[in-house]
Each structure stands twice: as C-alpha cells, then as structure tokens.
C-alpha cells in the first residue's frame, strides 16, 4: 500500500511540474456529430474575425485556443447543411453541434455547451456520467452495450463474479444501491443469471453514477445511486433500429405521431438461450433461460413551456436450475424462477422562464418474483410468490439564478407495500399453504440543493434532505427474550395504526478548490438513511432474497460517507487523472445468523442480526476520452468489513470481531482501450482483475454417526482464487449506401472471457466416500472442497445491427 501511494504521489508531482503557466487565452473545443450522434470527420470550421479554424478528427473533435472576444463560427461538410453561430468566448467551453443532412429538414438543430474541464471545477465527487455513444464502445458479452457491465469497469464498482444480481459500490451490499430507470426503482436488475442487465439497450440515453456526495434529490440507499435515463424521441421522421444476435435480439422505433407535438420511442429485446447454455458448462445441460424486456416513451408538447413524458418498462425472466433440489420440505426435480417487473413514470415539466422550471413526477413499480417447484412424481407445481409494490410522487422546482448560482427544492412521498411471500401447494396434501402478512410503509421527504461558485477557483455544492418514515398496520410485532431469543409476546396492530416511525436529517456537501485551470482538490460528505433492506444469504442472482422495511426490531441503516480527491488534466484536457479516497461508516447493517433460513419465516428477526460496517479505500484513475486511441484504466485498493455488536453468544458472528464482507476486494484493476483508426472499424479490449471474493470455509469436522459434519466458527475466513478476464469486441461499421442513404448497418463480434479463464463463483464441500479419489489433493480429509465455475470457455457472440430512417 505504501508503494502504491508513493507511486501516485510521484506521478502527480511529476505531471504537475510539467504544467505551463496560464495564458489569457481560452480553450474552445468542438464536437461535430451527425443526426445519429456519430462524429463527423473532416468537418470544416471557420472562425472570424481571427480568420482561423481547422478540420475535425476521426471522432469529430477539434480544439483551439483563442483570446477573449466575440466570434462567428461556421461549420460545413459535404452532404450536410451549413451551420453558423455567434458566441462570446469568456471561458473554456465545448460546443456540441449536430449537423443535418443537406436534403433533409429538421425541426431543430441541437446545440449544447458545457465546460471542457468540468471534472476539475465541479464540486461533485465520485460521479461518473456516461452517454450512450460512450457505453457502446465497451466490449460486452452479447454484442450490445450493457449498463451494469459498463459500471463494473469504474473504480470502486464490483459484482460478485460472472453471475451476480447487481452492483457493489465501494464495498456496499447489493441493496445499498438505488437503481433508477427513468425515476422508477429496479429491484432485480439482471437477466440470464446476472450476466446482462434488464435495461433495454437502444432506449438508454445516459447513465449517472453517484458514489460520494449524493445529491439531495436522491435518498433511501447508503452506498450509491445509479440513475439511468431513457432517451427522448425528439424526431420529425421515422427511425428503426435493432440487432440480431446469437443470444438476444432487439428492435426499437422512433417516430412522430403528431408533428412537433407527440413523439414515440419504443424498444423491445428478447433472448432464448436454452440451446446454447450446455456449450458453456456441463453443469448447465438441464438449465433453461429466456428473457424479454421492453421500454416505451411518449413525449407530448402541448405548449412552448410544457412537456409531458410517459415511460413504461416491462421485464420478464424465466429460468430453470437443477442445482438445488429441495427447499424446506418441498422436494422437486428442479427449481423454476419466473419473475417480472412493470414500471410506469409520468412526468410534467413546466418552464416559467429559460432558467426556472418545475417538474412533477408520478411513479409506479411492481416487482413480482415467483419460484415454481415441479414435484418429482406427478404434474403438480408448488408456487412461492412475493411482491413489492411502490408508488411515488415528486415535485421539484429548479432555478439558475446566474452563472455562479443555481438551486432546486422539492418534496417526495413514497409508499411501499411488501408481500414477503405466500406458498400455494396446489394438489400436494402434505404441504400447508402459507401466506405471510404484508408490510405497508410511507416515507415523506423534503429536500433542497444548491451549487455556488463565488470565485473562479472555489465551488460549493450543499444539500439537505429530511425524511419521515412510518410503518402502518395491519402488522404483528414480536417481542423476544434477551437471554435465548425466543418469542415472549406478540402484538397485533390494526389497519392504519402506526407501528413505528423514524425521522432522519441528511446533510450533503461537496467542495472544489482549483489550484489552477488543470488541477483541483475536492472534499465531500453525505449522510443517508435506508429504510428498505434486503436479506439474503447468497450472492447468486436467484430471486429468493427477502425485502424488509424498518420496524421496531429492525432499525434503518444510517451511512456517513467522507471523501477527498485530487484531480489533474494534461495535454489540453486530453488526459484526465484522479486520485480519490473515501471512508463510509454504516450502522444497523443487516446480516444473517449462522444457519439462518428465512424462507417463509413469519418473524424474520429471529434469523438476522444488525451490526456495523466500514468501507474505505483509494482509487487511482487515468482517462483519455478522445482521439483515435482512447480509453481508461483504474486501480482500487479498498476494504469492506462488518461486525456484529450483540451480547448474546448465539447472535454473535466471529465473536463480534471485524470480518470481511461478501464484497471485500482489496485489489481491483480495470483497463479499457478502444482503437478507432477509421470510421469503419472500432476494436476494443477490456481487462479486469480483482482479489477473489471471501467465502466461509469449515474450521474443523466432527464425526456424527459416521458422517463428517463441518464446523463453521468464522465467517468469510477464506477467499476464492484471483478473478481475471479479458474481453474483446470488433465493430465493423458500414457507411450509408449511395443507393439508399436511409439504411445503415454494422456487425459486432465479441468474445467475453477471451482466454477461457475458469473463474469460480463459489466453493462447496462434500463427504468423501472413496478416499483414494483425489488423494493427492485432499490427503486424509473427510471432506472434499470443490469449486463451481459457470463459464468454462470463451463466450462468443455475433450481432448484426441496423438503422433505418
């Protein structure tokens, strides 16, 4: 660790020493794209009165340095309409200009301006913002960009392996991350055992990940927020695009329904992979998996100052596993998982002026996982169902006072209705029907946030969020004996009666101080209260985990996160470097007791304990965002630790000593490089390596009636081997046909896990019968340890992508 720190300091000092003294000139950068967002090479830029300019590179970029003045800019290229604009250059800016084709008329030309060195001046820490074109550059498993896989290449973001049901951000558990898809929460974000995410690829516009001073408009998760936005169909003509692949296929359409008034964007994707799974692993020969997801968005423009948006999302998965044959007293030949998500978002935005707007949002979300147990003999199926029903109302007013100050204020009201589970035995006579009581809770929040830049060198972001959480009846509350944990009493609350209330005040703050135009220091702090928690005892993506709201026995998690960072840009912002450190202290973290089984458990408090959590680390990152060769790499050193704080011996884990959490990864390296030497070919490589995840190994064995039974005294006392993987993708893009300029297509060839690394996802122990088998490995041990590996070979995919407009 000291060596890494010294290297970082040395690199920073060396690079800082090469900086050139400031000049009175300002950097003016251009990004010229076509209607599809692709960079236009050799676009001519003429600037007066300086009689200067230039041509764009293969990615559509050009950067100049000019003195402060008023300039007229003219952009032209063969086949496109000429574009002209006048600007006052008094700061460093990036002009993003979208050109329209010569023979076509657009209702508007989209021009955006933002600071080139926003990573230096912004007071926001730990934020990653990626647009769809950047996501599409990353090599992925199925020939299409994937939100969650892209995020695992970011410093401090991991998962539990090739199959995992979400993200771990800076050592946090899966339920400590708020995943929003157009304002609606996603409780199960993956398809195909966690290999890909549920978000319809062609519908995604941008992804924002907040890991440090989370803005005050977000609440409810202590580790991070992943905010995914669906693109707006601001189109005046029909557009069709999609892809045909080995593992999944997709189709999307954008079209105006009423010219300049009502527009539609809709996309759907499906995967039917049963016949391919045995090729990847022998263990998957009896496994089935299929999925579908779809996103629809309508934009209505009733007046010049009003916009109304509706977004609908649907996701459904079905898969079958024969790895588990019995749960409780239910014996089945396989386990089938059938779960779906149905979300809807209605948003109305009203602009009072160009700098003052109010948005009102209604959100509904239904998540309904189901487990089906086909009985070994007969046609009867036993079904276990649970559900999360979520409603939310948000109203937020925002205003940009001037170039130095902007703010927003808002309110949010959430309702959670959780159905923990019900068991329908069908025609089985030896199994009783079970229906656990539902939980109904409400969370009312008010929040405010501001961004202020009083000087050129100093920026401040501050926010405050207030929460009031209430759990209402009907509810049955249990009281437990402090000595042996048995239930001593139960109290029944009638419908509408308050069971428990919690309040929380959450300050948020970020500070940025620029040493010069290329170097800045940042610090941040955020407190978040989490009232909805997930209980699980497996990192695999099976929807058997249980969601639970806070009550008198289970208190809400409270997380305090501190951060500090150094940021440096080089070579006219062509290279970005960051060094961030963080520390998060979390109280009331949920974890399961040894031997816990909370399937159909009425009082789940008997199987869990609440303790403390610590997560801290240092993240070093380099990024080259533009040019024919671009990409990034990062290295993270971190720890994620837990401990119980219980007096009763049976409730202690590791005797109340600190132990590694399931997401403790001391060393992680990610590297991505893209080669874009011409407009027709893009070749990408991604490499990741990380310390293997912790697991619990037996400390000893005891003989019970001739059977060696393992004894587990410590949790997560061993680790899986080092995880590493290389991915490759090659995109061959065909320019528009001279005969049909409305048709565009490309091929994407990907290899996930290029060299076929057998990364284990888990380890299990089995009684040894034949001691001569594998004797050189296990010696005289009565137990044999075996690793489970999902992917035993490279995962190859070929996808044909097309666009028509």
Brief overview:
With 805 residues, the protein is mainly beta. Helices cover 5% and strands 57% of the residues. The radius of gyration is 28 Å and the shape is globular.
Rg from C-alpha positions?
Answer: 28 Å
CATH class of the largest domain: Mainly Beta
> What does the overall shape look like?
globular
Q: Care to count the β-strands?
A: 53
CATH topology of the largest domain: Maltoporin, Chain A
Summarize the amount of helix as a percent range.
Answer: under 10%
The number of helical runs is 6
Main sheet, how many strands, which sense, barrel? 22 strands, antiparallel, barrel
> Which homologous superfamily in CATH is the superfamily of the largest domain?
TonB-dependent receptor, beta-barrel domain
Structure description:
This protein is mainly beta. It is built from 6 helices and 53 strands. The strands form 12 sheets. It has a 22-stranded antiparallel barrel. A 5-stranded mixed beta sheet has the order 9-16-17-12-13. β12 (177-181) and β13 form a beta hairpin. The longest helix is centred in the first third of the chain and has 16 residues, at 2-17. It starts with a helix and ends with a strand.
